[in-house]
Each structure stands twice: as structure tokens, then as C-alpha cells.
Amino acid sequence: MRPENLNDEDDTETIDDKWEKISEIFTKSAEESIGFKQKQKHKDWITPRTWNNITIRRDTKKKLNEAKSQRLKERYQLEYSQIHRNVNRMVRPDNETTREPTWIA
After folding, report:
1. How far apart, in whole angstroms, are the C-alpha atoms of residue 84 and residue 54?
2. Mean pLDDT, the chain, integer
């Protein structure tokens, strides 16, 4: 095979186009062989009221991270720490009701 024949391939294809093809091939083959990662389910032992507070805490943390001014950050940090403390206080009894005492086992 002569070197001139090697250059007969499609020269209009850019490196980005080639990368997209390679990436698509790898992604498709991985989906077929491995599959998708399943989303983590909620823990059954946590009550819906606690889940609501966890959602509120998550939203407050997002506000804290997106805040631009120092004053807003301080306010959201104080709010977040109070909510975080309350969530931890709510999760503890939820967990204790589902756990089997160690002295029984």
C-alpha cells in the first residue's frame, strides 16, 4: 500500500467530529454491556416529614452557594446551620425506631 492511498480518507472531517464518533461508540457500547446506573432510592426508615426538611436544607445550601454578597452568605449560612441541626435531630429518632437493639441480637 502506498502512502498516497492513506490520505484518501475524508479530510473534511475535523478532530472534533472524530472525537464525537469515538465518544458515541464508547457510550453506546457501555450502555449495552453495563446499563445505566439506577438512581438511589430514599431510605425507608426516614419519615416524610424528615424528607421535607432535608429538601428544605438542600435548597438552602443551594442558595448559600449561589449567593454573591457576603451579607446574604452569612444569613444563609445561619439559616442552613439551624436547618441542618433540626434535620439531624429528626433523623436520629427515625433511625432508632428501625434499628434492632444490639443487646437482643
Report:
1. 8
2. 84
